[in-house]
Amino acid sequence: MEQTFAATGNAQASIVSEPLTKSAERANVDLSIVTTLFKSSDYVEEFYKRITAAARKITNKYEIVFVDDGSPDDSLEKALSILKQDEKVSVVELSRNFGHHKAMMTAIEQACGDMVFLIDVDLEEPPELLADFHNHLVEGNWDVVYGTQERRKGSLFEQWSGAVAWWMVKMLLPTKVPQYHSTVRLMRSAYAKALVRHKEQKTAIGGLWVETGFRQTGIRFQKLSRKTTSYRLRTRLVALLDSITSFSERPLYLIFFLGLGILVLSTVVSVGLLGFWCFGKTLPGWISVMASVWFLGGLAIFCIGVVGLYTSRIFVETKMRPYTIVRKVHSAADSGK
Prior knowledge:
By secondary structure, the chain is of the alpha/beta class. It contains 11 helices and 9 strands.
């Protein structure tokens, strides 16, 4: 089953990060495989073996770029060990943890291939998908082929909360983000270069994938599930808020119309109470007053919070800090190859 869409969007300045050396070998690459490392020690070696086998079925002119997003375990050491054995591997070491979305954007920026295959290293997305994605990209002359889950993985709570989050995204975002889309995707270099021109400190990469435009299509796959995940409930809530405030002004309009509705309602109620007073009728008002105070007070705090989210985005974006900072780039040349 397929899902297709096309979108347009604006592009901004380039991401600030240190690029890999554009050697003659890297300039002649058909396929770049890029991924990020964070608490990925258990998966790095198996991922490398499986993605290498998948890449060799397509071309011998490929590269694998690992971006270490400040992983606290030995993921970096294992990637460097692989680098010593394979000159097609490069490792970009970030100075600290910048977050999954920023690390992915940095990984895409480092790619040199005519095609860029982005995939998570945790093997929830099978590396063998590369062949299917490549066939689909070539046969349909697509610019992007991305994966969508058949159904949201995880516990009943995760599925329920995910459904609620997607309902909010559909209601509040003018950008039509494909439901349950996944990280894994194969992109042509023209699209990848356009994507990394976006430079937003509060990165919501799901929306940027759509906003960049080009010809895109989605294919369904069965995403595996592992017991532990670095995406906690708080992380998911923050990502949801970032997505909404990055691409939509609708919450501000909703606040305006909500305030207008309360103004009209309060006016009607005030006129009614004045009428009761004119006819000498009084109402026991303690409960109604207290309920009104609590309701309007909570509503005011909520509205201020929403406006504050947008204000905080302005505060963060105007600082123009580096998108990510690269501590060191490890390549085959460093290992003596």
